[in-house]
Amino acid sequence: MTSRRELKNYAKQAMSGKYGILILAFVAVQALALISSMISSALFPGEETIDIVLSYAFTFILTLLINVVAAGMNYMYLNIARGKVYSLNDLFYFYRHHPDRVIVAGFFMAVLNLLTMLPYTIYSNANLPGEDASVEVLITWLYTGVVLMIVGMIVYQILVIPLEMTYYILADKPELKSTEAMKESLEMMHGNFGRYLMLKISFIPLMFLSVFTFYIALLWIFPYMAMTEVMFYRDLTGELKVQKEEEERVARDYVNPMFDSYSQSEQPQEDQTHPQQFWSVTGDSSVASDENKEVQNNAASENTQDSLYGSVENNRTTQDNPYDSSESKEVQDGLQSQTIPEEEEDNEPKPWDEYFNSLK
Question: What is the rounded distance in angstroms from the CA atom of residue 132 to the CA atom of residue 286?
Answer without folding.
Answer: 94
